[in-house]
Amino acid sequence: MQYNFQEIEKKWQKKWKEQQTFAASNGTDKPKFYVLDMFPYPSGAGLHVGHPLGYIASDIYARFKRHQGFNVLHPIGYDSFGLPAEQYAIQTGQHPAITTEVNINGGVDNKNNKITGYNNQLRKLGFSFDWNREVRTSDPNYYKWTQWIFIQLFNSYYCKERKQARPIKELVDIFTKEGNIHIQACTSQEELFTSENWNSFSEETKQKIILNYRLAYRAETTVNWCPALGTVLANDEVVNGLSERGGYPVYQKKMMQWSMRITAYAERLLTGLEIIDWSESIKESQRNWIGKSLGAEVIFSVVDSEVKVKIFTTRPDTIYGATYMVMAPEHPLVDQITTGNYYEKVNQYKDESIKRSERERIADAKTVSGQFTGAYAVNPFTKKNIPIYIADYVLVGYGTGAIMAVPAHDERDHRFAKHFDLPIIEVIKGGANVQEEAFSSKEGACVNSGILDGLSVQEAQAKIITEIERMKIGHGTTNYRLRDAVFSRQRYWGEPIPVYYKDDIPYSLPESALPLILPEVEKYLPTEDGDPPLGRATQWAWDVEKEQVVSNDLINNTTIFPLDLNTMPGWAGSSWYYLRYTDPTNNTCFADKTLMNYWENVDLYIGGSEHATGHLLYSRFWNKFLKDYGFVTQEEPFQKLINQGMILGQSAYIYRINGTNNFISYHLLKEEHDVTPLRIDVNLLKGTTDEVDLDRLRDWRDEFKDAEFILEEGKFICAREVEKMSKSYYNVINPDDVCDEYGADSLRMYEMFLGPIEQAKPWNTQGLSGVHGFLKKFWKLYHSGENETFFVSEENPNKEEQRILHQLIKKVKDDLDNFSFNTSISSFMIATNDLFKIKCHKREILESLCILISPYAPHISEELWEKLGHSNSIEFQPFPEFKAEYLVSDTFEYPVSFNGKVRFKIEMPISATAQEIEEAVLAHEKAPNYLEGKTPKKVIVVPKRIINIVI
């Protein structure tokens, strides 16, 4: 009977769906295990073979844990708000909700393109998702709770003393009784006030002050503005000054924006890294992004001005070596201190600077640029005037946006000083010539440093901070590079922010009004006045008395007020979705506390490392906030994280002879040929070869219709190059096509076989045939009857059969425990070959073998399990138990030496005595050849080691 994978896979996918095989139970005595993938954005392009890599790994592990008796939660959903659907809406007029629905469930878009749909593609790969728990961030029943979390953040502040979020109401009570003088809170509020002051303030003034304490707040912020997309982008959405989506220019711009006060959680975000099982590289990325620094804030006076500039330094011990000051180009005091002769140059520099994102500026350590402002500051310890520059290596959001520059002991400052010919003064002894290179070590003694001379760096830091505080020009402080997260986006397809405005002050909607549904608009572009797309909505005002959305025409700013025109960023809905999966249909709260307590945090999370300083950080922040109020019990959302590598594509290149429309076959290329390489679609190749189908190539694009092709042996061969798999590189392989030709089980096993899950590896369709051939052989192992019919023997296995099986059990179990999925595939192949050689058909062996391979190849395993006579699914069968005794041999193969030289080997029972071993060796057919008729002087037997005959 042939292995009809197409029929088998359709059969079991249908059964799993009908029988709800993978639905997780909320009421069971089993221990829980929560396996989660970073949920996908449903693009119209669908999946390519690189996308399922992480899903396959998580699915294998989820199935393995079910075999181990765990109640496994393995859900799926869609991060369905996003810019691609909105851009498509702008281009075609199709509502993003329709686009999203077609992309998920399949159908035809308004360009008449047939879309398979993510759901169909994922089901075709045999993933054991609990489809009943599917969530979508664009579903109002879901984003109702995203909006609810926003309101909780809006109505909270962070208490430094209690190290947790607390209700704003508490803060107002404190203000009423004692002002803000003694409050330990994370805030941008600088002015102090008494209770008398507070009680005399107008309502508007009070609300503005409270806004400086809220965890979700609105303020003027420097953002990444992309005019072409008409929206603000997060740092991780900008690459080399261009938008990740579309490659459009991005500029730094000051705008009123919603932000999340994630900086309040900086220390907890750092310490939390110590209790989670993540790769050190991801942890280090987050540590660097948070960027904790201990140092001091010091006030420098500007010469001939009343302006004072506050700087932050991590090396206050080097203050005597500060020979110039640098401010961020966006610093609010730059315009005030710049002198007349330098205005034009300063403004030119600022214009150039806004084209670079903060991330680029941090990363670009070697480029030296800056502009003198014409102003000088006074070093408070040397009393010398030092020039003030602006330069984009200083960020307005880090520290105070200004630094004292000590070129002798900082590499960047040193490069800057050499470039602009500024003084370099050594103040820490212990390095090489500081005129040539900076000595940045924190080991050494202070020199040229007045009151600090002779002190170690550590001693000097303590003394200078004490002196700074005594002089009342600053204080010691801890700083973080982490910036508050910009939360608003000027686009349509996102969660509306549940806020209305009274006298330009934001007020949150009542929770009972949620969800605030995204309104209909005629176009998805910003308005002619520059407002976001929601500015086009005609029903977008809030009636505070009726508590409902009404027409804009009714706005009277007394009882009816304008609603916010921004939407939330893409990371909002993905920052808590792992919680919603525990209770996805709850209408009274975001998830039942009992269920969240049962499922707790995610035991295994798999996704890309590109989310290290985006989604992974924001999710941790929101989880900690929710824990502060007791909504969740765990401090961290994801206990173990695995970052899957990329599957790279094999691009196809053909070569055009420059100045002609002639193309030359790859192997005919010579150095003298002046050619231009062009990528072509890999689907234009014949089968798994590198030969181009020229008829299809001519039909593919007009430029090839009349081209001449120079062939080799009647064929046109292309070159292949391993690159990122991308539509723009024409090297995308559709998993649906692979499943149709080889089967989902072959695809699953092949992707695991390519290499360790964390590493990048190239795709090669030719390799699929080897894995598919193995599954055919595996199938045949169970079909050894007459005419290849199904056959198993009820005989008891022999020792060799048990050895092969238990060796495999041990290897697969160890591999799964260590997430080494690739090496298991080799072991399956070896074991199958070994069982084939000895013609093993024993039920006990084949049933265990079937369970072992089922996490990797579930369809073929289910089919064989049914053929073995079982009516229930293989999914919940106990994982085979490893028995070490089957790997312990009852014989030992002794090397036999004559005068120390090994001549042959003899297998003996382990129980044999030394006398029995000696007799057997001397009786061996080869022994006379080496004895040469002599009687041995001595026979040395070392049990289970060696036999040596001395003659």
Key words describing this protein structure:
951 residues, alpha+beta, 6-stranded mixed beta sheet, 30 helices, 32% helix, 20% strand
Question: Can you give the mean pLDDT?
Answer: 94
Report how far the terminal alpha carbons are from each other.
62 Å
Strand content: 15-25%
Radius of gyration: 35 Å
The largest sheet is: 7 strands, mixed
Low-confidence stretches: none
Task: Report on the architecture of this protein.
With 951 residues, this protein is α+β, with helices and mostly antiparallel strands. The chain has 30 helices and 40 strands. Strands 14, 15, 16, 17, 18, 19 and 22 form a seven-stranded mixed beta sheet that branches. Strands 31, 32, 33, 34, 35 and 36 form a six-stranded mixed beta sheet that branches. Strands 2-1-29-30 form a four-stranded parallel beta sheet, covered by helices on one side. Helix 3 (83-92) packs across helix 4 (96-105), helix 24 packs across helix 26 (821-837) and helix 25 packs parallel to helix 27. The protein is globular. The chain starts with a helix and ends with a strand.
